[in-house]
Specification:
The chain is mainly beta. The chain has two domains: 115 residues, Proliferating Cell Nuclear Antigen; 117 residues, Proliferating Cell Nuclear Antigen, CATH 3.70.10.10. The chain is built from four helices and 18 strands. The strands form three sheets. It has a nine-stranded antiparallel β-sheet. Strands 5-1-7-8-9 form a five-stranded antiparallel β-sheet, with helices on one face. Strands 13-12-11-15 form a four-stranded antiparallel β-sheet. Strand 3 and strand 4 form a beta hairpin. Helix 1 packs antiparallel against helix 2. It starts with a strand and ends in a 10-residue tail after the last strand.
Length: 261
């Protein structure tokens, strides 16, 4: 038996919004420690790693490890049926063919159940090596979202440059070029608005706007985003999911301008 209950269905809706542009289907690995998803996007350019810890749920039970293949669009449609204040429960039997979503209104007067067919997926678990990064930047997620959206109007990629002064984002294309510099802020009073740069050595990397603009869909999950970078290794873009877990996006840097998007 598997059962996971969240008082706020809104969290799950935001998680789905954060991955549905990259993944059409994914295997949800459920164990007694929580729920994990690791999947490449359809073009095999970026990797999504989602972790929801069992202790973050209001009720969690997983008698044996389950791998459940789910269609993300279908899951997203079902979650849209939940009211923003509804409690959501995911339930499945051992060796399931379906998963049931149960939505309950705060006053307990309305109970809705939706059953979704699971899909067979042959997906091997992707091992993500532990890496120490040359530069780790924490910044407001709204600010990062705005920069990615604004700069993607100027080019197909954005260059991230980290130095002692702070972090610089730049893009160039047929219309001209754009640069946004963020200095490290010493304003510790409001941690959510701070820009913190921990740098071992300077880093300069270029990434595809198309993928960055998918990653920023996770912005509503938390006030701060963490960007971890080293030369020649994928960027890690991490958003915390309340007290329950995190979502990480991995994206390899572009090698040169001639490379395909």
């Amino acid at each position: 038996m598997f059962e996971a209950r969240l008082v706020q269905s809104a969290i799950l809706k935001k998680v789905l919004d954060a991955i549905k542009d990259l993944l059409t289907e994914a295997t949800f690995e459920c164990s007694d420690s929580g729920i994990q998803v690791q999947a490449m996007d359809n073009a095999h350019v970026s990797l999504v790693s989602l972790n929801l810890r069992s202790d973050g749920f209001d009720k969690y039970r997983c008698d044996r490890n389950l791998s459940m293949g789910m269609t993300i669009a279908c899951m997203s449609k079902i979650l849209r049926c939940a009211g923003s204040e509804d409690t959501v429960t995911l339930r499945a039997v051992d060796n399931p063919e379906n998963i049931t979503f149960i939505f309950e209104s705060p006053n307990k007067e309305k109970l809705a159940e939706y059953e979704m067919k699971l899909i067979n997926m042959d997906q091997e678990h992707l091992g993500i090596p532990e890496t120490s990064y040359s530069c780790v930047v924490k910044m407001p997620s709204q600010e990062f979202s705005r920069i990615c959206r604004d700069l993607s109007q100027f080019g197909e990629s954005i260059t991230f440059s980290c130095s002692k002064e702070g972090i610089k984002f730049s893009a160039s294309g047929d219309y001209g070029q754009a640069t946004v510099k963020l200095a490290q802020t010493a304003d510790a009073d409001n941690e959510e608005e701070a820009v913190i740069v921990n740098m071992q050595e300077p880093v300069k990397l270029t990434f595809s706007c198309r993928y960055l603009n998918c990653f920023i869909k996770a912005g509503p999950l938390c006030a701060q985003v963490q960007l971890s970078m080293s030369n020649d290794v994928p960027l890690v873009c991490e958003y915390k999911i309340g007290d329950i877990g995190h979502i990480r996006y991995y994206l390899a840097p572009k090698i040169d301008d001639d490379e395909e998007n």
